[in-house]
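Lab channel / #folding
Pinned by the channel admin:
"Please post every new chain as: sequence first, then the structure tokens as a reply. Keep commentary short and put observations after the output so the thread stays searchable."

First post following the new format, from NK:
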Amino acid sequence: MKKMLLFSIASALAITLAGCAQPAPPPAPEEEYDIKTDASGTKYIVDPAKIMGGGPPKDGIPSIDNPKFVSVAEADQWIQDNELVITIIHNGIKRVYPLQIMVWHEIVNETIGGDPLLITY
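Reply from TO:
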């Protein structure tokens, strides 16, 4: 009986102490975030040697330079009513650019009403 009472008290104490524990402070940063200067005089905060490239290379996403358009009836066959599109009306001319195409190309070089335009997403 004494062992059971002692075990209960010890368990309650352990649970109470665990609830009072403070989270550990965040680790100190590895480096100071002061402005540094390289040998050529260029100032930086993030060491350029630690910067890594990501994503496609230059010109890795092909733009659409001569977009082809279809009628609303044709587009209704492959564009759902709830799909997102970019729309523009310029000089009274209406254009619709489906996001399902724009997410792959991101840029359309277009001439609308005689004006060169860049549509981007």
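NK: The helical segments are 2-20, 72-75, 99-105.
TO: also worth noting, The chain is about 25% helix and 25% strand.
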